[in-house]
Amino acid sequence: MATFKPTFPKNFYWGGATAANQIEGAFDKDGKGLSAADFVEYIPKEERTKDNAMEITSEQIRKTLSGESTGRFPKREGVDFYHRYKEDIALLAEMGFTAFRLSIHWSRIFPNGYDEEPNEAGLAFYDRVFDELAKYNIEPIVTLSHYETPYGLTEKYNGWAGREVIDHFVRYAETVFTRYKDKVKFWISFNEINVITLSPFTGGGIVSDREENPVQTKYQALHHQFVASALVTKRLHEINPEGKMGCMLARMSHYANTPNPEDVLKAQKDNQDNLFFTDVHARGEYPKYMERFFIENDIKIIKETGDDEIIKQYPVDYITISYYMSMLSSSAPEGERTDGNLMNSLKNPYLEASDWGWQIDPVGLRIVLNDMYDRYRLPIFIVENGLGAYDKVEEDGSIHDTYRIDYLRKHIEQMKEAIGDGVELLGYTSWGPIDLVSMSTSEMSKRYGYVYVDKDDDGNGTLDRKRKDSFYWYKKVIASNGEEL
């Protein structure tokens, strides 16, 4: 048998990914309004009472706005990228980044979400960021909505539960498409759009206790996002014919727990539940298998005339995913479970787990890439992947994160194999190249970066940046286009 050695294409994008609400800080500077992320309070691990602490109640919002809450809101602080973006981008350039995924904070541009005119100070900030990236020939990959629904839209419409938000989102998108048409080519409509069904406040600014039927509401809100995504894809192509719109899925790949056909069927259904979102975005229609799900769960999607046609006519140009782990499906889910928050699963005895209970499965990434490319025949961009772990700063200031290097190396090896299998893979932006506030727990100790940020879970620290061992390793990976791992 001949030896086949896959390689990364010469134009492959290498970089890292962030979200505005997790890095920027400056939550009340230069005209920015409040967003959903600004209401997420830090809860120490020992005080958490459930896996998912991201949902916010009406009472929590009242206490936050009235000043009764005495807690910390780390996403308001981030890691001060707002003032340190030049320093941070220089570090990315030193590693050799050719792409950087970031999000625009919607409430920096339209402070309430429904404002008639955009906030010039917010637009000017991202002009400066994009210009700084261009100085180093780093391609921006820009997410329009990354868990940052303006609070004004929650207050007025209960977030994406209100169909009116579609028009406000389209106006926001048109504003930034026009402003940055010569600076940004790659766009993503909604980060991990499937999260709206797991955490409606995170994914759509929806306060569930305001709704009589929260399950109905979250799928109706999702429909509004599907329509909005199609409309902004249309407008992007009109404003900038060179622009590319992607969707984004938190890929939760499921294996059958045993060869029992009931387990295999359960895994198939779980995978369909996850791929439903990209089925709509890429194929342009609701898949038939969801009809049964909607009937069995008494969900009735209210569509306006033309919705289906809009979704069909304007599918996405490429697909983006986050991939951190795989999961197990069982028809009789008994047994030891992982410690993950949104992605809790039966434990797979063949896999190791991270400090936060996320099962590490590099080969699973190859499986996911092959399955999704076979299903859609669209280019794929891995825009999140990485290891959240505790890091120790040695007395000499060094940080020996060999565990992170090992995780990333194994996943990059499987990406290369997937390319050899025929998958059209555009690029790889690992999650959190500079340590940032955790989305799910608002911790700083759950670190992903190549660059260490001196800040702890209580908000203490200098915010100084330090290069970890993985910084120098990733620099070699990029310089060799994935050959030196």
Automatic annotation (TrEMBL):
It comes from the Bacteria. Belongs to the glycosyl hydrolase 1 family. One of its GO terms (molecular function) is beta-glucosidase activity. The active site is at 384 (nucleophile). PANTHER family: 6-PHOSPHO-BETA-GLUCOSIDASE ASCB-RELATED (PTHR10353:SF122), GLYCOSYL HYDROLASE (PTHR10353). GO terms for cellular component: cytosol. Pfam families: Glyco_hydro_1. PROSITE patterns: GLYCOSYL_HYDROL_F1_1 (PS00572), GLYCOSYL_HYDROL_F1_2 (PS00653). InterPro entries: GH (IPR017853), GH_1_N_CS (IPR033132), Glyco_hydro_1 (IPR001360), Glyco_hydro_1_AS (IPR018120). It comes from Priestia filamentosa. This is 6-phospho-beta-glucosidase. GO terms for biological process: carbohydrate catabolic process. Keywords: Glycosidase, Hydrolase. Gene3D superfamilies: Glycosidases.
